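Input (structure):
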């Protein structure tokens, strides 16, 4: 899918709109979801423009691993690693993706149901 550089996460990366940023490095940014679905709801996004997980290529392996390791580091630094947390990546509209810049949801602070809705 073609990447739309005007999407809301691109604008957060460009610091054109504010976000509550918890972590930033050369490859990713992590911030609080504006509409939290759990007591803790963070988003970890790559700086590289990629619309969906469905568009990932072999060259994206390091970046994708970096997003997950960053999520784990945030879980430890924010104190919910041992309590448990859920990682969600919605890829495509049918899966519920609404912002077409790849992102990892990190949800914690409540019991999680399975199967997910
Ligand atoms: P998804 O539905 O998987 O594409 O997730 C997009 C997420 O982005 C949703 O959970 C939204 O609440 C969140 N979101 C949308 N706009 C913003 C924003 N400006 N700042 C932080 N989170 C946002």
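Output (sequence):
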């Amino acid at each position: 899918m073609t990447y739309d550089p005007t999407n809301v996460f691109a604008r957060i990366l460009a610091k054109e709109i504010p976000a509550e940023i918890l972590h930033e490095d050369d490859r990713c940014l992590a911030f609080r979801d504006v509409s939290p679905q759990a007591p803790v709801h963070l988003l970890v996004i790559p700086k590289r423009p990629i619309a969906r997980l469905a568009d990932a290529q072999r060259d994206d392996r390091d970046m994708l691993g970096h997003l997950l390791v960053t999520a784990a580091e945030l879980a430890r630094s924010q104190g919910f690693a041992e309590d448990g947390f859920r990682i969600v990546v919605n890829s495509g509209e049918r899966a519920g993706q609404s912002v077409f810049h790849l992102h990892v949801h990190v949800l914690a602070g409540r019991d999680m149901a399975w199967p997910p809705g």
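Notes: The two ends are 25 Å apart (CA to CA). The chain is about 20% helix and 20% strand.
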